[in-house]
Specification:
Distance between the termini: 23 Å
Helix content: 10-25%
CATH topology: TIM Barrel
Strand order of the largest sheet: 6-7-8-12-13-14-15-16
Shape: globular
Number of domains: 1
Radius of gyration: 19 Å
Strand content: 15-25%
CATH superfamily: Aldolase class I
Number of helices: 6
Number of strands: 18
């Protein structure tokens, strides 16, 4: 990932996040934040069922940019009922599989935010939600390990839906479950990130650990998960990963999250965004303006799903000039996206394209 952040522990359960220089990985358009590789060719996936739909969710109020309503969608579940694909847009109550089929699911509500919903992301320190948070928005993305169940409960009391970040494709030496990974499933170093190495995401052991992480997110009360580093095939991981295995892994993560009634997002992954649009409830992307690739994610907007966009202009997080702010804001290709201006440490500071600045309260 491109951001450099560090979460300060409050107890042994909540481990430190990273505070290193941005990763530089050879991948899609040399994106400094990893992206998934080429659009997958048609592959068969058995036993994977996923679905989306519509309902009612939270709205937001306050002196921050106004929030768009959220909706709830049908929970992904099995057994699947295959029907003919109706195109790129996601059908209500169904999710497109890689072979060009849709899967119809049951109707247990699953959170589905709408395009244009404002948001905030804070990963380098635990959120202080003991008081009213600013900006007063309905969506926050926070570190799963670095924040307690009490914090998430306090955020819920403020009408906030909580997306919980964790790394799904890399081993991090400082995580509390680091010792559970089999040595043969831990691969090459992530360039620029000491103490972090790629994982074999095809391994059952790795998937079992990630299932436990998703379970922990559910136990803490997270409404959705933000799984990072699922695109290792775009670099030298030490394992024979492909775009197909990445989509398979994303399907596994998505289905697991849905089993706990949690939504899930696609992190960057521009080259498979079209295939993954109906597999997740939102996208989280970085530096798409800087890299000239914003239009890749327009399928999400067409499908009624938000694209949460982060840009890191010069001067953030202290002072961004009007010129740099203009360069990092609305241009052709990112219409309808939910954009924030952040420093790469991903602290409490945030600026929006109207020039409004907030500092979200954190511990440490």
């Amino acid at each position: 990932m491109e951001e450099a952040h560090k979460v300060h522990s409050q107890s042994p359960l909540y481990s430190d996040e990273k505070a290193q220089s941005p990763r530089k990985i050879s991948s899609f358009r040399r994106h400094r934040y990893r992206t998934l590789g080429a659009v997958a060719t048609t592959i068969a996936i058995l036993g994977i069922t996923l679905g989306v739909g519509l309902g009612v969710g939270l709205t937001n109020s306050g002196d921050a940019p106004s929030s768009t309503s959220t909706v709830t969608s049908d929970k992904r579940s099995s057994p699947p009922i295959a029907t003919a694909s109706q195109g790129l847009s996601c059908q209500a109550g169904s999710l497109s599989l890689l072979g060009g089929l849709n899967v119809v699911a049951n109707t247990t509500p699953l959170w589905q935010p709408l395009p244009g919903t404002p948001w905030q992301i804070v990963l380098n320190s635990p959120i202080d939600a003991s008081r009213s948070l600013t900006p007063a928005l309905s969506v926050y993305d926070i570190d799963m390990y670095g924040n307690s169940a009490l914090t998430i409960q306090q955020m819920h009391l403020q009408g906030i839906k909580v997306i919980c970040y964790f790394s799904a494709g890399s081993w991090e030496i400082y995580r509390p479950d680091a010792g559970m990974f089999p040595p043969q499933d831990i691969g090459n170093d992530l360039h620029g990130w000491p103490g972090e190495r790629w994982l074999n995401t095809e391994s059952k052991a790795v998937r079992d650990i990630m299932a436990n992480r998703i379970k922990l997110a559910a136990e803490k009360g997270c409404d959705a998960v933000d799984p990072d580093n699922v695109d290792g095939f775009g670099t030298d991981t030490g394992f024979p990963l492909t775009s197909g295995t990445a989509l398979n892994y994303l399907s596994f993560l998505s289905l697991t999250a849905a089993s706990y009634n949690m939504a899930i997002g696609l992190k960057n992954a521009g080259e498979i965004a079209a295939n993954a649009t109906c597999m997740v409830e939102f996208a989280i992307i970085e530096s798409c303006i800087a890299n000239g690739e914003c239009d890749i994610y327009q399928n999400f907007i067409a499908a009624g799903k938000p694209v949460f966009q982060i840009e890191y202009p010069f001067g953030a997080p202290t002072r961004v000039s009007k010129q740099d702010l203009a360069k990092s804001c609305k241009i052709k290709g990112n219409e309808g996206y939910s954009e924030v201006i952040k420093g790469k440490e991903l602290g409490g500071w945030v600026e929006y394209c109207d020039g409004t600045i907030f500092n979200t309260a954190t511990y440490g």
